[in-house]
Write a structure and sequence with these properties.
single chain, 239 residues, alpha/beta, two-stranded antiparallel sheet, globular
Length: 239
């Protein structure tokens, strides 16, 4: 009753289409349904969507030619349209009501066996630099991780993997530029806590994979046993 009263006095609307909402989920059901989910077959390493039967079990060309430190990575949705806009709304305009549905998309993706998570010990967010968090006023990855941690019952390890290098945004950089930009950007503050552990690394976006790969390298060098990667979105298309 209280929520209904508040909605009457302070109505809430979908960030995309302005439809009036009953609860503050950020987007209306119709807009959420337009988000395009990624389905197998995936590259067994980086999670790129491949053309072929869902049982296809191969490496994509990029993974055959590049050194990747994570065991495998998966992304839940395509980085396009409504989802792209929604991610920007959370990341740059602090629309934190989107966090619940983002984390729920990721939780369901894992529970649908698209990522082998059962033997994982800890969940770690890809950290933002303190200066970047101050600029944005939000650590959106940490907010998403907190909900995924509860939903999957995997302990969250925060403030251990740290970003010590303030880098320029990766958006307009080439693959080589991204790798150089992110090199040695991360350290593990308390490596003894992670020694021998299996880690699920969480981020919002997988583009070339350079950021999560550098995180994985730092974690493995600190004694971590294995690193799996889960991101909300990825911007590739079918091969």
């Amino acid at each position: 009753m209280l929520q209904a009263f508040l909605n009457l006095i302070y109505p809430i609307y979908c960030y995309i289409c302005s439809t009036k909402l009953k609860t503050n989920t950020g987007l209306c059901d119709a807009c959420w349904r337009k988000v395009k989910h990624r389905l197998p077959p995936f590259c067994i390493k980086c999670g790129r969507v491949l053309a072929g039967p869902k049982e296809l079990n191969i490496l994509c060309g990029d993974c055959q030619n590049n050194r990747l430190y994570f065991e495998h990575a998966r992304s839940c949705c395509f980085y396009e349209g409504i989802l792209r806009n929604a991610i920007h709304l959370l990341k740059f305009q602090r629309k934190s009501s989107l966090v619940f549905n983002f984390s729920e998309i990721m939780r369901r993706f894992v529970l649908n066996n698209h990522l082998l998570y059962r033997d994982l010990d800890l969940l770690i967010p890809v950290p933002a630099h303190k200066r970047r968090i101050k600029e944005r006023g939000i650590d959106h990855i940490l907010l998403i991780c907190e909900k995924i941690s509860r939903g999957l019952k995997i302990d969250l390890e925060k403030d251990n993997l740290l970003r010590i290098k303030y880098t320029v945004l990766q958006t307009d950089l080439s693959r080589e530029g991204r790798i150089k930009n992110i090199l040695n950007a991360f350290i593990v503050k308390r490596p003894k806590r992670l020694k021998g552990k299996s880690i699920l690394l969480i981020d919002d976006l997988f583009t070339t994979g350079s950021t999560v790969n550098e995180c994985a390298r730092s974690l493995l060098n600190s004694g971590v046993k294995r690193v799996l990667v889960l991101t909300l979105a990825r911007g590739d298309t079918l091969l």
